[in-house]
């Protein structure tokens, strides 16, 4: 009887793990589209957490160490005053020519002040979970270099 109870408990635990995608055990796994959407969602939060903004980026991104500060984001396309941000027509592409090894998504981005600028996201695998993608660079065309996030 005790063996049946243990087996039943093991089946329940395995079922929960499979249904949850093992996220609580292995961490989240986001592909390019999901990572871009999650970043935009974080950028739009009413009470912005800059550590959460930084968490979407690859640790080798050029300005990674500054990305958890308000000052960094206020000098970018993703300033708080410019929200609400949205993207549309994001299409997968090859690597961004200036950033070898990246995978990319390109499409349109809008904010409170800008409508339909071209945006490019460049992604690299997470060094801790290679099946997960992290943002390496965001380029919003039509803006100065300060509007490039990397």
Question: Could you explain the architecture of this structure?
Answer:
This protein has 150 residues and is α+β, with helices and mostly antiparallel strands. It has 2 domains: 1-28, no CATH class; 31-147, Nuclear Transport Factor 2, Chain: A, CATH 3.10.450. The chain has helices at 2-20, 23-26, 32-43, 50-54, 70-74; strands at 86-93, 103-110, 117-125, 133-140. The protein has a 4-stranded antiparallel beta sheet with strand order 1-2-3-4, with helices on one face. The longest helix has 19 residues, at 2-20. Residues 15-26 have low confidence and may be disordered.
Itemize the secondary structure elements and their pairings.
Elements: H1 2-20, H2 23-26, H3 32-43, H4 50-54, H5 70-74, E1 86-93, E2 103-110, E3 117-125, E4 133-140
Antiparallel strand pairs: 1-2, 2-3, 3-4
